[in-house]
Amino acid sequence: MSTLAHTMMTAARPADSGLAGPGELDRYPYTESPGSDRVGPPAWDGSDTELGRVGRRAAGSRGRGLHGQLVQQLGQMIVSGDLGADRPLVPEEIGQRFEVSRTVVRESLRVLEAKGLVSARPNVGTRVRPVSDWNLLDPDIIEWRAFGPQRDDQRRELSELRWTIEPLAARLAAGHGREDVQQRLGDMVEIMGHALAQGDGITFSRADAEFHTLLIQLAGNRMLEHLSGIVSAALQVSGGPVTGCDRPHEASLAHHARIADALAAGDAHAAESAMRQLLTVHPEVERVVPAPREH
After folding, report:
1. Which of 142, 165, 198, 228 has its CB surrounded by the most CB atoms within 10 Å?
2. How many CB atoms lie within 10 A of CB 94?
3. Per-residue pLDDT tens for 185-234?
């Protein structure tokens, strides 16, 4: 096993390393899990004096400061519909509700504006924008939608997008014989195999995400490479049987290995075919994303 593989295999893991279920990856601490005491996104109106402190508890384990936590909380509230379109956002009110400074509020609203969630105009103030204006390819918005009321639509749309991106990327990647990337792809498959055997779902998921990111980079198309973050987000917010990457299992591992072998052999057709098989390990996908017609 290479040094890279060994490093990933020996990375710090939680004491309970059972297979990761929906939302159990450490990057998404606010999702529902058995026994969780998480409080859901609070309604904007109401007399709950714990509103600000609840928001900080929900986002605190992401390792962000107050600015990042406020972005997280407001973003979730907008995406969930708790703050509807054209809703005015008064900085003074936000600061009081969440117990943060004007500077934190101002910077947070700037981040949300860059994501298309809000707009700020002179004499109008800051207002929530309609869904049609959101940057739906932003990884944060993907995450917020995936664990909110729009979770089913988000997962279906991500699955459809992956069907567009990844088989093409696999076919293109077969024409690029970069040995260093090929080695890393093999390392990821090896790590996934060890993780599966040990019941380590978190390590499996991380290696899985790295595998798909590397594959898209290997395709040699910078526009596709720009979308690698979307695929990574799709893998990490998976919440059910939509693609073969949603749960660690032998079939998923076997398809990843076939993709790596096809790429190493320079077989574009086999690489594309193996990727399509990976994305349809579960029969539910065929109803969501039908295979393309043969011409």
Report:
1. 142
2. 22
3. 999 999 999 999 999 988 998 899 899 999 998 998 988 888 877 777 77
In degrees and rounded to multiples of 5, residue 255 shows phi and psi of -70, -40
Residue type, 134: W
Three-state secondary-structure class, residue 88: strand
Distance CA 209, CA 189 (A): 11
In a 3-state reduction of DSSP, which class is residue 267? coil
SS3 content of the chain, % helix, strand, coil (to 5): 60, 5, 40
Spatial contact of 85 and 131, defined as CB atoms under 8 Å apart:
yes
Which tens digits make up the pLDDT trace of 39-95?
333 344 433 333 333 233 333 334 468 889 999 999 999 999 998 888 899 999 999
pLDDT winner (highest mean) among 3-7, 118-122, 280-284:
118-122
Q: Which residues pair with 119 in a beta bridge?
A: 127
Of 24-33, 64-73, 117-126, 245-254, give the lowest mean pLDDT range.
Answer: 24-33
CB 212 within 8 A of CB 181: no
CB 77 within 8 Å of CB 87 = no
CA contacts within 13 A on the Cβ side of 156: 10
d(CA 231, CA 201): 18
The runs of H, that is alpha helices, within the chain are 3-9, 51-59, 66-80, 91-98, 102-114, 139-146, 151-173, 179-198, 201-218, 222-225, 228-236, 250-265, 268-278, 284-288
